[in-house]
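S., here's the first fold you wanted:
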Amino acid sequence: MSGAIWDDVLDDVDRAVFEAAGWGRRAGFGRRPVIMVIDVNYNFCGDRPEPILDSIRRWRYSCGEVAWTTGIPAIARILEVARRKRLPVVYTTNPRRADGFDLGVWTLKSHRSDDTVDVRGHLGNEIVAEVAPREGDILLEKRKPSAFFGTPLISHLTMLRADSLILTGTTTSGCVRATAVDGISHDLRVTVPHEAVFDRSRLAHKATLLDLHMKYADVTDTADVLAHLEGLEAGLFDAEFPPAALAAGVDAERAAP
């Protein structure tokens, strides 16, 4: 665990507990990974890199400049390789009804719940242009933290014969964590490159990555993920996911077994 991003929030007692209990063993990458880009929309990123308190004045969900300086560039690098390898890419965003009904009890957790930034049709729900979906990608709308809850995600993954997820996006402590836990609950291997996820709270970001790595997922870095993706054969999903093949100009029928 030495040199990990959470080193400055992990004390000696907790470190000894995790080591004694055997937590934190690396599970390893899967053979058929799907890339997920979770809620990287203007609501959570703001519309430009600026200090987080400035951004939150206009975008109450915003994670501030870390989205633009760290998260989005790392995600873009992963997407470039993933698309070149013709891996499925799944995006989520979270539009709401104008009256806020589908927010449910979430409205009770913020005194700014009446802000219109997440109403369907508002710019806030759009994926930021720098990592926006392309032809052949999958876009899911969700209403709760986990990308699995109330969406067809698990059906898509079953159809794809996916065995693993590489999670990017935001927030680390919210929707990324919820999706990671649901992912391993469906016996999918989950990997989280720490530069490619971000949060409005630095403490929550680090503590969540620690907890995920100890019990649920492999937290690694972007370079490690890129090296793994580069080592995969191109077109692993061509037979199961023709849109990616077609977007790359590949005859999916030829790829079918």
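And the second, which I think is the more interesting of the pair:
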Amino acid sequence: MDLLTMLSRTFFDFASMKEVLPQLLATGLVNTLIISLAATLLGTLLGLLLALMGISPSRWLRLPARLYTDLFRGLPSILTILLIGQGLARFSYQLFGPTPYPLGIFALSLIASAYMGEIFRAGIQSVERGQMEACRALGMSYGRAMRQVVIPQGIRRVLPAIVNQFIAIIKDSSLVYLLGLMTGQRELFRVGQDAAVLTGNLSPLMLAGLFYLIITVPLTHAVNVIDVRYRTGRRRLTAPQSGLKEVEEVLKRPEGALAAQPLTGNRGQS
């Protein structure tokens, strides 16, 4: 058996891919999107709160935000998921039953919020100070100026970084399988891994990886387009106009019209 044939049978066995495709679509893809979207939403809300605490003039707000950010950015994601998933398992079982999804989403939210907080803080602080001063001069309160002027501009400036963090959450969602998943709770990675173990072939995992690429790569290019649109604005192409148009209008006036106007003005002044 030559090398190409071996690689083809190991990674590109289309029969194995076809067999696992329905499970990847119906179970893995749905659960991956649920975990990622829920963790991103919670992480965004917590991250915005951390950003506001981080730029607060009060040390009692800045210090907890700094400690939180350093903690969850410094720990490996897999360790955070295991600590949260196993440490709070009994409490979660009483509220949600045997599903590990709430704890997995909570752990990913804590990780994402630490990064989101730094992203939002950088975006808000990049807004010129004159924006706030102008809002206060117009009689706006600090909170209203932040909500309506400063924060929207800061979020728009860091939109690519926010989407990149969402992509990271999608990939980190594969670590939730460490908490134990039932058949209907498996995400993309777990479905592909189980199929690879049963068939002794890595083609199902390759197909799972393809699904991750289908989700993340278009997001990356879409946010680049949005970022360029925000930075440059919408440009409407118009035909160039020549300055000779005004000259033609002057030449079309009746003779003596230009001379009559100054005379009338002088008479009025006299």
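Why I say that: The two ends are 110 Å apart (CA to CA). The longest helix spans residues 14-54.

Talk tomorrow,
H.
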